[in-house]
Predict the structure of Nucleoside diphosphate kinase.
Amino acid sequence: EKMEQTFIMIKPDGVQRGLVGEIICRFEKKGFYLKGLKFITVDQSFAEKHYADLSAKPFFAGLVEYIISGPVVAMIWEGKGVVATGRTIIGATNPAASAPGTIRGDFAIDIGRNVIHGSDSVESARKEIALWFPEGPVNWQNSLHPWIYE
Ligand code: DAT
Ligand code: MG
């Protein structure tokens, strides 16, 4: 099977609202493998780097302010199709349009408080993992692997 990695971040509102366990649980139970995890507060220049592609948007300053407003949980998750499936688990960008059963559909109301980030492509996952985890992923193999993959 072709394994991929994605970058997932629980934003400051997700941390404040006590959603860390619930969110990790959804990725874990699906069968994805946790390959990196850190609980950190980032500064403005780091947040601007993470969201560099959106620097021309009118909401950019507010977005950066929100991301640096408290600690976040940064994670690497691995699995077949984890980039696209991770986005499906997260739900649409605007929680008003996120389906029930998705993280944003279940736990968020406003687009500027949408609880979680997930990479939108294999290429942006690679860039985001390099930015947030310069030390690289944790190297381990889940012993349940043959029970999850055929
Ligand atoms: P996503 O987080 O679903 O990948 P994105 O990359 O387009 O969405 O934007 C990053 C974040 O910026 C998003 O989670 C919330 C915020 N955002 C996006 N579009 C917005 C808008 N029109 N108004 C306010 N905030 C917005
Ligand atoms: Mg995005």
Q: What stands out?
A: The first helix runs from residue 12 to 16.
